[in-house]
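Record 1 of the preview.
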Amino acid sequence: MVFRLGSRHRRPRNAVPRRLIFFTVVAAAALAAVTAMKHPDDLHEINLQNLAGTKPDAITGVASVIDGDTIEVHGQRIRFNGTDAPESRQYCDDAKGFEYPCGRRSAEALDKFLAASRPVQCTFVTWDRYHRFVGDCRRADGTSVAAWMVEHGQALDWPRYSNGAYAAQQAKAKAAKVGLWVGQFDAPWDWRTSHPDGAAPSRQPLGMIGRKLVVQSGGYSCEPRRYCSQIGSCDEAQWYLQNCSWGGKLDRDGDGVACERLC
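->
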């Protein structure tokens, strides 16, 4: 008696084993996790969407400004590629040494710039760790948004991601002393490192963020912010320390006495 063995299904020679695919995906996820832990400030983190090759179409529409380097169009957050602007809560020094809300100023400049030629169109570059669409954006008239912001001193060229694409615009802004370059400031990436609580993106567009209240009493005001060299008396220094969010910087040694040379 002859027994015939059933035919066996053979895997095609060029087929990729499922186990190999599984371990590749797991390894990719692990790589993304390690990258996020080592570089928490990276705005162009590796993630599974990048690894999978997902590339969205360009986004076109009227933008709501989040801050000087981020907008929202049709519900999608879009981060400008290669530039970095002051954070919404960031302050800088003007030419006279007074602090001003440079983050807010940058966002307002962007809002006015975009309103002059709508809509904006953004082409995809990558995703960042906040699931923002990182892209190159242009106004309806073809003007590069990122280039304009850097050239007018409202944002910085970020060589880590731009490869110096906006270095010429930044040199021009610095020479002309416009925007941030009129005084002193911390680079946004450095400011985020020292202010981790203010590093996450704002949840609301510019028009929905409430104006910061100004505390006034006895002729003193929390705006503009001041340094000890700009304060006239011990009482004034103590008032700033006790009533203003930035007052703590006047008490360098943390003993509860602001601007001790005045007291």
